Amino acid sequence: MKRDDAVKGMWQRTYHEVTANTPGLLGAVISRAAPQIMRLACLYALLDHSAVIRAEHLLAAVALWEYCQGSAQFIFGDALGDPTADTILRALGNAPNGMDRTEISSLFARHKRAEEISRALAVLQEHGLAKVQPPMRDGTGRPSEVWFSVYSAAKEAK
Length: 158
Hints:
This protein is α+β, with helices and mostly antiparallel strands. The chain is about 60% helix and about 10% strand. The chain has eight helices and five strands; from the N terminus they run E-H-H-H-E-H-H-E-H-H-E-E-H.
């Protein structure tokens, strides 16, 4: 099958949009978006008894894919498939004032090693799902590091 000239430009833009890196389980589920969209466009063209993929075929395929992606987003949300990071992310989402390391450790009844919690926090930060407020001193002891969900911080700003 071939694409008509109008579809070639549309496909380049669509391809760049759907191949953007998406973290977590959702990213794994939608990672094959580009070939799936093109297969759908081919099916729509064949159903139209056409050997050429036209704009309406690609647009229909993209619309169907967007529905599929929305369904996957609803099911998997921001889950990373990392139980420690996912637990912390859920807790941060419910903590508008953020959580310090002691509170995060308490989520696991202090049964997670500090290294495991640090690793999970680094994963959340790397994927843009959590951020840390620079350590602040409360007068005594070590500076307190407070973590926030990026999603709940954006929601609070609205």
